[in-house]
Amino acid sequence: MHPDLAPTTTATTPVLDGLLIGSLGLATLLFVLSLAAYTRRRTRSVLLLVASFGALFGYSLIAVLQVLGMVTEQTHHLVEHALVLVQSALVLAAVYYARTIERAAGDDETTLVPESRREE
């Protein structure tokens, strides 16, 4: 393996460790909460958002793995940018799906709004 591509350990500090653990914990919490939302709503647009939060978790995980020296900096950047692209595409797909396809099918995702407050 080329020396520039070999995994290296990165010097960590307690602050950096705390930030990494916090970001991974927050990403995990958001992913679990999005799964809970999907079990309640069961719509494709919410499922796309669950996948987006999964990409956010992956984004945090790859940062932790890079700091621990388990992946190279080049791999970290490649995966990180790919996950940003995937996450953006999933959010756009969720919005598009919710506003066009589900609305056309009669399910405009206003189920959380009481009928008395819905606009006709």
UniProtKB/TrEMBL annotation:
Residues passing through the membrane, by range? 20-39, 46-69, 81-98
Return the InterPro entries for the record. DUF7471
Question: Which controlled-vocabulary keywords does the entry list?
Answer: Membrane, Transmembrane, Transmembrane helix
- Per its record, how is this protein called by name? Uncharacterized protein
